[in-house]
TrEMBL record:
Domain YrdC-like: from-to ranges: 14-200
Superkingdom, taxonomy of origin: Bacteria
Alphabetical list of PROSITE patterns matching this protein: YRDC (PS51163)
Name of this chain's protein: Threonylcarbamoyl-AMP synthase
Listed Pfam families: Sua5_yciO_yrdC
Amino acid sequence: MAKYFDVHPVDPQPRAIDQIVTLLRDDALIAYPTDSCYALGARLDSHSATQRIRDIRHLGDKHHFTLVCADFAQLGQLVKIDNAAFRAIKASTPGSYTFILPATSEVPRRLAHPKKKTVGVRIPDHAVTQAILRALGEPLLSSTLLLPGEDEPMTQGWEIKEALDHQVDAVVDSGDCGTEPTTVVDFSSGAAEVVRVGAGDPSRFE
């Protein structure tokens, strides 16, 4: 059964964050809130979590996983960014955006797109997510918690625990989470291309 953590959305309890991070370091898969909607998260080097996310969401090998970062310094180690992309991304983070960029050698090969060698990265504007990332000291492998056949992600922690009690190791609940996933902007060809309109304002990239 999944452990359940009730975490304050603005002032996360350090003890709860430490317990969540201990689980992540022990190869756990968690459901956690972000500034757009709930997501599934694990450490980048967790081989089992990658497959577990694919199984839960029925994803193929072309799916872009997202690497969730605490700050721009962390993000810059994972992707190659030219000056134009740097300025645009810097101006809109933290926020509800995912950026697709060429992966660096720091990214495990299994997480990058098999042909394009790209990966999604983001810096969320959410106190609980940021607290987890800072305590963990590394990015999270992440994917929107959208179950097969559903049009919208689940928004309540208890609802997620009921549905995925035997498929995830922990559920982090910090109140109602939105239903809109991030706005996805693809910079892999050089120019910004909005490939999914979501919670982030797409107009700054059009």
